[in-house]
Amino acid sequence: MSNPRIQLNVLAKDVDNAKQIVEAAQGNVYVGLMVKNFASVEAAVATVREFQQADVPVSVGLGAADPTMWKKVVQVAVQTKPAHVNQVFPAAGYTLGALQSVGSGHSIVNAVITPSGTPGQVIITTGPQSESLKETVSCDAAAAMLAEIGVHSVKFYPIGGTAHLDEVAAMVKAAAKHQIKIFEPTGGIDIHTIGQIIEVCAENGAEQIIPHLYTSIIDKNTGLTRIEDVKELARLCK
């Protein structure tokens, strides 16, 4: 598809920052809330709901793809029915089923897949016990396994900015082949590299692209995501 839909996935320090982000991105954004940053499921649920009440589309995340947070993500997601959910590959199907059982069919659920260093081969052992194994499978096999249970999206992390574009291309191509229409490149992306990364995703068949940008657009002094950067990213994504 030559003209994919592009939505950003960014962090916000607070509700006001999040509302400004949504406005700056003209709604084409998910605001990530990482469950790892909360002492309890209840605290995370309360914050997600606060953002949702302000009409902020929330992406419930692990926190640096920490696999030990997978169950906490599910617990928060089923209580809040967010727009978007990040999950490790082994728990993606479980998460999708849990959300569907509470009537949250609108929630996009992704699965974290890791580049292996070899184009065409990826690591799907991204869970708390399996992550130490680092065994590879083909992109084709990884995509087929997600497609057969209905997982919506591949989160490819960490891509190191433009360091693994050949691997990104291979994974996008396999996902598209198996009708997984959403692709989420993550890791080391900034204003200077986002255009090239989006281009590779689009050229290889992604119909919806959700690049994740975190620390590169956060003001180190205030902790706020810079609204001017969000505006520039939104312009680059058109």
Automatic annotation (TrEMBL):
GO terms for molecular function: lyase activity. It comes from the Bacteria. Pfam families: KDGP_aldolase. Gene3D superfamilies: Aldolase class I. Keywords: Lyase. This is Oxo-acid lyase. It comes from Paenibacillus albiflavus.
